[in-house]
Design a protein that fits this description.
The chain is of the alpha/beta class. The protein has 2 domains: 205 residues, Enolpyruvate transferase domain (UDP-n-acetylglucosamine1-carboxyvinyl-transferase, Chain); 207 residues, UDP-n-acetylglucosamine1-carboxyvinyl-transferase, Chain. Helices cover 31% and strands 25% of the residues. The strands form 6 sheets. It has a 4-stranded mixed sheet, with helices on one face. Strand 10, helix 6 and strand 11 form a beta-alpha-beta unit. Helix 5 packs parallel to helix 6, helix 6 packs parallel to helix 7 and helix 10 runs parallel beside helix 12. The chain is elongated. Bound molecules: uridine-diphosphate-2(N-acetylglucosaminyl) butyric acid (EPU). Uridine-diphosphate-2(N-acetylglucosaminyl) butyric acid binds next to helix 1, helix 5, helix 6 and helix 12. The site of uridine-diphosphate-2(N-acetylglucosaminyl) butyric acid (EPU) has 24 residues, from helix 1, helix 5, helix 6 and helix 12.
Amino acid sequence: MESMIIEGEQRLAGSVRIGGAKNAALPILAATLLGNGSCTLSNVPRVVDVFTMSKLLAHLGARVESNGDLTTVSVDEISSCRAPYELVKTMRASVLVLGPLLARHGEAFVALPGGCAIGARPINLHLTALELMGAEITIEHGNVHARVLGRLRGAQIYFDVSTVTGTENIMMAACLADGTTVIENAAREPEVADLAQFLITRGARISGAGTDMITIQGVPALHGADHEIIPDRIETATYLVAGAITKGDVTVERCRPDHSDALLAKLREAGAELMIEKETIRIRAPERLGCVNVKTLPYPGFPTDIQAQMMALMAVAQGSSMITETVFESRFMHVLELQRMGAEIRIDGNHAVVTGVKRLSGAPVMASDLRASACLILAGLAAEGETRVGRVYHLDRGYEQLDQKLVGLGARVRRAPERP
Ligand code: EPU
């Protein structure tokens, strides 16, 4: 296992290029299962979760070839309909193969993911919706076993909680269903809209993706297609915060500013100077940013996947801010680690009250999940002295070459074997 070692207090400056969105690439890769014909995806991020999804697809019968940011997948036939626990436990998004397998093959066994570091994360809404579409679902030996005789049926689905992968699973399943499916209170995330765009290019009939009501008219089959994955808005946010927390001057290239409105509004409110063009965002930060309150919400609200990074920024801002997490019930694991670095944070239920300190102090800390890792590295960039972030394998699940990109901006970051 490796740690990341950061020597803090280096001002970051320069440009960094953003890769494709992990959370768009994962469902789009899963959606290749929905038909034969080859699909070539570009701007695919080279991150461990994408490699895991490719491994899972190969296990199910797909031919997957990758070259740089291009991945070509063809699935002439499904040779296995089992997503094994070994893969699912390392990546919850494996559950995204459930809808496609059921729709194309009529049967799927997908290991139940279980709890994770940021919350219970059940998949009950995915399962109830598939049942409404005619699937018979049982839980056996830790697996979801889903079956349907013939085709799934179009149905009226209402999600009482906005669920990203739930919306994606049902949208994929509905593409090959008999009749029309309407998803109400659908997730509006750009990654859902990107998946819909890919499916439409493959011949699916979908309208309303990106809004809270999506209508899918089933078609008998999908064909192959090429698609470019949208830029990663969470990676974008992470580098903007890196620029802000080091009082730097960072330009984020090849991003989608229109997918980052909530964050940009908060950074501006805190006093950062932002220069926005079609595909670039430049951030310049003053000596010390002001505090802002943040409440995580489904898109277009402030993303839960940036809550931890924003908390690192507020930990050194002037004044007190209230950070409220409403999407996941235990996504404050980074707080204790930030406290080890001298942050003043008080937790009250799903609120964290962060009182900015002038300077954090470098310390050995432990990452608990992907975004918590990013938060601790950002804190390390601002801290005095050396910060050693343990368990950085979490980071490699969702960030492509974060250390090298930071070094390109002038940071002093390196990897080292984890101390026993
Ligand atoms: N929920 C239920 N029942 C369900 C599904 C969800 O109660 O059947 C609840 C969850 O427990 C949670 C809320 O609904 O409280 C929202 O969860 P959602 O289903 O939207 O999350 P997800 O689809 O499992 C995706 C991203 C996460 C991101 C969340 C929220 C992917 C592969 N993952 O997860 O990304 O945090 O949406 O935006 O798209 C990350 O990249 O670090 C990450 C965790």
